[in-house]
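Build the 3D complex.
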Amino acid sequence: MRPSGRAPDEMRAIAIETGFTKHAEGSVLIGFGDTKVLVTASIEERVPPFLRGKGSGWVTGEYSMLPRATHTRGSREAAKGKQSGRTQEIQRLIGRSLRSVTNLEKLGERQITLDCDVIQADGGTRTASISGAWVALRLAVNKLLAEGAIKEDPIEAKIAAISCGIFEGTPVLDLDYAEDSNADADANFVLIEGGRIAEVQATAEGATYDEEGLLRLLRLAQIGCNQIFTAQEAATQ
Amino acid sequence: MRPSGRAPDEMRAIAIETGFTKHAEGSVLIGFGDTKVLVTASIEERVPPFLRGKGSGWVTGEYSMLPRATHTRGSREAAKGKQSGRTQEIQRLIGRSLRSVTNLEKLGERQITLDCDVIQADGGTRTASISGAWVALRLAVNKLLAEGAIKEDPIEAKIAAISCGIFEGTPVLDLDYAEDSNADADANFVLIEGGRIAEVQATAEGATYDEEGLLRLLRLAQIGCNQIFTAQEAATQ
Amino acid sequence: MRPSGRAPDEMRAIAIETGFTKHAEGSVLIGFGDTKVLVTASIEERVPPFLRGKGSGWVTGEYSMLPRATHTRGSREAAKGKQSGRTQEIQRLIGRSLRSVTNLEKLGERQITLDCDVIQADGGTRTASISGAWVALRLAVNKLLAEGAIKEDPIEAKIAAISCGIFEGTPVLDLDYAEDSNADADANFVLIEGGRIAEVQATAEGATYDEEGLLRLLRLAQIGCNQIFTAQEAATQ
Amino acid sequence: MRPSGRAPDEMRAIAIETGFTKHAEGSVLIGFGDTKVLVTASIEERVPPFLRGKGSGWVTGEYSMLPRATHTRGSREAAKGKQSGRTQEIQRLIGRSLRSVTNLEKLGERQITLDCDVIQADGGTRTASISGAWVALRLAVNKLLAEGAIKEDPIEAKIAAISCGIFEGTPVLDLDYAEDSNADADANFVLIEGGRIAEVQATAEGATYDEEGLLRLLRLAQIGCNQIFTAQEAATQ
Amino acid sequence: MRPSGRAPDEMRAIAIETGFTKHAEGSVLIGFGDTKVLVTASIEERVPPFLRGKGSGWVTGEYSMLPRATHTRGSREAAKGKQSGRTQEIQRLIGRSLRSVTNLEKLGERQITLDCDVIQADGGTRTASISGAWVALRLAVNKLLAEGAIKEDPIEAKIAAISCGIFEGTPVLDLDYAEDSNADADANFVLIEGGRIAEVQATAEGATYDEEGLLRLLRLAQIGCNQIFTAQEAATQ
Amino acid sequence: MRPSGRAPDEMRAIAIETGFTKHAEGSVLIGFGDTKVLVTASIEERVPPFLRGKGSGWVTGEYSMLPRATHTRGSREAAKGKQSGRTQEIQRLIGRSLRSVTNLEKLGERQITLDCDVIQADGGTRTASISGAWVALRLAVNKLLAEGAIKEDPIEAKIAAISCGIFEGTPVLDLDYAEDSNADADANFVLIEGGRIAEVQATAEGATYDEEGLLRLLRLAQIGCNQIFTAQEAATQ
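Done.
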């Protein structure tokens, strides 16, 4: 029995509110239940040094938790003077995921930064960030297309992410904090429309699992991501 | 004529939404027009080293802008590895202001941290932060009183802050970004209920002003803070 | 055809030299072909603050590349003043992997640090590090058992890691640098004796793959890890 | 009664010794009683990036305390690896103040840095720094004029700073350390010749004050700054 | 011919002014010609962690150049966020030198920090620092003896330092900046009263030298240090 | 009697293994007894900013200890975020020493970095580093000569380093850790073929010594360096 009473393959409510802030080219408040992340897409007419003059754009991600997004207050990384290993790991994952569905040549020599700031955390902040980042990227790219700054759509497919895990022996979809902190295994899947895999990060904590277990988690993730794709479609119509 | 069409002594709409996030002991989304700041109050049962064992509590503030709160994206301070001088100056001001209306002995040996994270900026982020921080502090202290953790209310009065300036020769109240970036003089006032002054930070930019000019700005600030006190009262009833 | 001429399921030569340095409680030079990593295990009679007084030990990993382990010289992280996101990600993976086969209560209140320093890099440095770290940990724990400092063996199973990927359309085992920099998909598997999975980190680069593709990579990894388990056994007899 | 026996509107002795060191384009040892600050003005033929090619110069300030300028030794900021919020706040104030009386276009594309190093502290180090910085700036600009590097004098007026406060209920001028650490309110005024205000930074500590109190402090500051203007004039004749 | 016209074995004027600042337990402004260093000795009733409870004291040194002590302005180390290798090397030398003539047991569990801040530089700042540090240490220890805080004098001998070098083929004593920047070889000697050596740091720059050359420099250093011992004696009578 | 049973003027076994790693232009594992340092020489076709366009090359050194090179584990400098003063001092010494035997104009506008990573420490790591760095530099320069990238050999002579000290009253050559930690005086000599001195760094620890003592240590160093020159010659034939 899940703490929330959800069925094993039941996601939390997905809420996507576009236009949450006004300055960014794309702005989204995404909620997976009580997890809420503000994602903005910022377009800058420059690329990192290693891409200058090569006719290719760049998509990158940054991630942060507000200090009191969590049950107990965490120190501000700016005050500590460095980003934790966890933060950097998530940032790299966000950028890699969004780039895997973007044609960087079609984007032209510009950079889009996806800032994911967790307003409230209840498990799954990285998967909500990636799923929301796609919406913010879509909105920003729509703006470039509408202005005629780019001719062809550089976004090749939708991408979404979800966590799955083995909780009290049962594979379950979309772990919340109560489950996440007690799961026997925990996996984040980043999936692309059409059944393709962009990333798998699966970790056994305490217990371990086998090939069969990995497949079960992957299939739950496909159920969840299909629901996110639908919500992304609705939010960007 | 002000860019917004406001009268010289007219504030922007004040919006205070309590309970915006669920984990913090106090949580407020405060808006001064398009400026929006999320303020949380976090209670921790410990004090800084210099206060240990002295029977006194502590109130402190932290401040940050989300990278795309502004017209163009700013670098994340956590990524740069240090907080700017401006950030530190504002943090010190927030803490000092809230401590000036708190009886730290009555608070007991605990610390309340007021995290002010600017979601969207349009001028006046530090004054909205201080004004919202009082509400978050009030909510957190109410919780301590309700739980019986403290006996007497340590909050002695309301406190609020507002910016004033001289724009195209006219003293005006509550500068927005369009005014702030072109003002001849810019002053932040932190005022306490009953006509008392906690802080004045007045700077001439380009032009200068005299005693008479300072007084006019102070009187505008009193008009503005009285409206904020009313909104704070309404939000915490 | 692989650049090295290896068959798709053929690993590079595994070389494990124990006792490479004399001060550490466990010291191993592990080679996967031209990739060479010096791993030392250091026992310290203290645990991190969050474990003090709880009767549990800790196993952690650190990772670094010598500046000229690679084709072109990389800057020294100590000179830059911080560890990269990649370094931190690998360190966290090493620690998590080794802890997944260690009973921390049986270890007692002491910490074992596994330092993995890459002497020469040719792809697969993190998987060689994890595989070598198990040997260094085994040697250090043997020393504790021999001295009577602990009664029961805290190591529950062997653990090993290997990378697999899709190179020119073919799933291949144990990517070297020439393959790694051109692979369509790249996955690191951390496996435990007996067919169990500790970690999967699979990334599509450029291309994507599906459930079938993931399974093929996993099966290659099982072939590779079984050979590493045999080499670990031989090195610690 | 003031600890020093001074009258409420009585400043400490002002001592300005020019040419204290030989390399700088302007060099001043300024004393407000026992507070002694060495200020040097350094001319560099370059401007910060945001001003390049715009035909405008820049004036900036830096501030530091020698470790044993104070009663008890303070840690060296260079050893701690960062400047405190207080230091940055003072540095920003010094630069802003001096720029408010300098025509940056007339200065041409060059930067003048005012380094204020506190040799001995007894209250009022920031106000002595600003007052001495004007003298150092004057000497450096005189040198540029004498060499024909600039044609018109970019300095438009004298500027000086002084602290005032409410000590045991009485408004007093030029707080020394004994007063500063016990004052009910503390204000720093930066004033320009002719009765104009450049900056006001007034803080209530413990107590608060009202409009009347603020005016009294401002009037004391005018008395003090007039004496500093006279000393600045004498030192630069 | 030396740029200054001095004879090869002629030192610059040595000036030692005690009591230059008032808070420190020992305070000295030492000049070797135009090189001027302010040295303060600060007594703290605590020792570094590695000495706690061992009945031994500690003597340490810190060193810094004011930004415009030199011909062209140098960046402030506090602003850059770290001390240079040169600064750390000099600090370690100052501490080691002073400890070599101090009986740390007789000092008791307290630390004396010798802060050497270069006000004006013209070559030989580290040797002036060490020579002045002995005077500041002597004054601080005299205070401890006068107060009865310690019974026996922990200072066992005088110590002084001087630079020598080979300038245009001739060994010369006490290099100034004009010589230092063109010397063929440069050596710093730290000598103890009675002909003993505490430290030699000799470097060939461009040229090299042999055993004979090293001895000549050492003999010049003995001449110079004898004069410094006399000046130290006079200053502390 | 020395702990190792060696005669006072007896060095430990010198072992030089070239080609230890494959990517670097020069790669050497040098051993002085149980002290083992991996030195690589990396050629980069760029020079530091201060040399750009001046027709001169640069030779520099970096130094690090692996965390468990020593008896007890030391913290990784990359994790602490800065290099210690000791590390920087040694790095500066390595670079200065190698540059003293290199004609930088003949090297052309390129930089050679000598990375010295201590694999195992038993005293004398800096002297082994310098002695090994010459071999790595020689190999890298041979490569440039063979490729025709430079015409004339920029290396003017061999250079080697050795430590000497006074142990239980006797001057001894090539201190190992057991001696180094108990020596009365400790000196590092960097000598050039033909009896010339590049650097002397001699420190009295506890005891002091005189002119006679310094000469005795220098003569031992000459004996040691002559043996190192022979080993360098053999390794680079």
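The longest helix of chain F spans residues 211-235.
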